[in-house]
Here is the input.
Amino acid sequence: MSTAVIYSFTSNKTAKAGQKIVDGFGKSLKLEVVDADNLTEENFLAYDQLILGVPTWFDGELPHYWDEFVPAMEEMDLKGKKVAIYGLADQVGYPENFADGVGILARLLRDRGAEIVGMTDVDNYTFESSHAIENGQFLGLVLDQENQARLSKKRIENWIEDLKKIFK
Amino acid sequence: MTTIPKVYTIKNTPKETLESWFRLMTLGRAIDDKAPNYLKQAIGWSYHAPYAGHDGIQLAIGQIFEKEKDHLFPYYRDMLTAFSAGMTAEELILNGISKATDPSSGGRHMSNHFAKPEWNIHNVSSLTGNHTLHAVGVARAIKYYEEKAVAISSQGESSLSEGYVYEAINGASKEKLPVIFAVQDNGYGISVPKKDQTATRKVANNFKSFKNLRIIHCNGKDVFDSMNAMTEAKKHVLEAGEPVIVQANCVRMRSHSNSDRHDLYRSEAERQYVLDYDPLAKFRRLLIRYKRFTEEEIVKLEAEAKATLKAAHKAALAAPDPDPASYTDFVLPEPYISEKYPDGTHEEEGEKKKLITGLNETLKAEFKHNPDTFMWGQDMANKDKGGIFNVSKGLQQEFGPKRIFNAPIAEDFIMGTANGMSRFSENIRIVVEGAEFADYFWPAMEQYVDSSHDYWRSNGKFTPNVTIRLASGGYIGGGLYHSQNIEGALTSIPGVRIVYPSFADDAAGLLRSSIRSKGMTVFMEPKALYNDPKAAAVIPDDFEVPFGKARTRRAGSDLFIVTYGNTTHHCLEAAEKLAEEGIECEVLDLRSLVPMDKEAIINGVKRIGKVLVVHEDKVHSGFGAEIAATIMEEAFEYLDGPVHRVGSPFTPVGFHPILERAILPNTTKIYEAAKKILAY
Here is the structure.
């Protein structure tokens, strides 16, 4: 099984979190790191397992590099692929659209046949609403470096432990 | 997250459509980027609010607008909106550098206020979101006349903090009007962030509980999401017959305007964050990524945009500047001219009618005369009640609830929608009871002031044809909110006629002239005289009183009294008393304050020499000051003593009858002032 971690190399916090995820997996899983800014359909489809870094921009939007890739993803057949999403978000500044980007991309990929893995608990976050929630869980890992930076390390570790059970 | 049909995508949109959008966006941005250079070179464009970052939604607003059918109210950041709606690059620059041929205002209005009234791209105020009420007003006409069209009010998200925007959206929801409120949300009102404006980041959601109102959120930086949102909004308005708010999330890539420095309040990281989502760069990348255009094709289009800008710049620079002698043009449109009653007098005999009857019958006659007349206000129409004083009694029964109706308790809404509705057709005439009492008119002042300069500001292309009826003055024991006069304040604002009759026939004649004229008229009704027999008069059925024609109510040669409104009767009573002493006073009832019958005043001064000016309003800065100063400037050598004024002191009008009597002028005070002048 091939696995890629895809995030924008020009991003700051998302890239740092991506690197921590790569470090966290260590040698337990072979990971390739791909730049979301220059993502192609071939690139994306080349992997069986994907870890996507999807921050939420503005009032609940995908960053432009993911948004520009949406028309391509809308025509993909993603059956058999496992996708885990992590996203940076701000529960104090943007409580009405907390981590919406994670939910937007998760639903889009699932609609194309992908299996979304790596759900996490919503406990210990305070916000008003989020498109990232389904059945009481986030559709991925949500990190809030603005307000809960000290919790991120543990959240990443726990998430990786969960993913290790799923990703081969 | 958008849940609207994807009519437009990067893959399915015809190439020629994509090309036309890219041309508009590229050239539009080139002008937006070039605008500051005009200021640096001292050519003009001293106010420029860059639109960069709003590209998607502005393109979309312009694209769904159908000229001469829909009505578009762009705000001061809407350059691409205007360009996308059909204005040319040259026209945008003509506005920017305030040339005489600027289609928006001929250089009269501030730069970056793009308009083309002949296409229904309306010339709007700088007051943020003030045009929201105009869009709602014109939408009322669209609905009444059953046009398949929409009104589009485009504005920043901060404007939703304004009370009148609430009034507008409430009215559109209540009346189910065909309006799209396109809210361009860039997160700032100049330097004030959204968090300091409202608790809800998606401010449109503050209106979620309104009935008959759909709210659509979209990405205003994205061409396709914006096009789909605006397309759906228009479709919904036309099919469901109810308003829509489209809140488009944008970024402000630059400062608010060229007098602002956003580096003073935005971090470098934030400024970079918004630059990273440059909508034009995104659209360009999409065109190439999805192979709709080659890099070479794009470069060619960009080169053509540069060439077009160069030619437009050259043509605009060569255009003429405004003629300084033209500033007196278009202050007020020409009034209705009475051929039968050129000086506004008559010799009719018969039964006298009360002032209130004169008004009521004239309203009914004018509403029969012109089917495009409408009237609304507070307490206007509810069973047997017609207006707070029943002036409009029976009108709704006769002309129906679509022409005569109640307005919410929102004076600004009453005024603003009157302005807006009259934009639909120049045949429309609107009468409003501006407030329950004149004293309550102040909340409408922003619309009043804005409407007062519409004609001038649009270089004669639009005038609101509105008669504002205001029950005015005291002598009813009404206190601070029911007995004041406000004409002293209103007469300082150019662009509106102001009349204040004191007899039933003049009231009827002036009301007819007001309703038949183009432009705005404030019609002050001395409410204490509505049913007073002393104001009753014989009224010819077709009586007309021209503006600016005073009427001599008593002839005399010893003292010349200039007055209007309630005090006309006090002056006549004082004159009668003085006549018993052998002193003959002439009493001139001005009837019109703006325009004022200067000729009648000067002639009276020349003949008589001693002058008393009387009005109910405060002496301090009251209209009498204008009369007195005019006499001093133009007839000083004919005076046989200083001009005296009688009016209220510089205080509010008290509620207790003792206080009211102490404050308001009366026959005794006038008599005593007259004696003083006569003894000079």
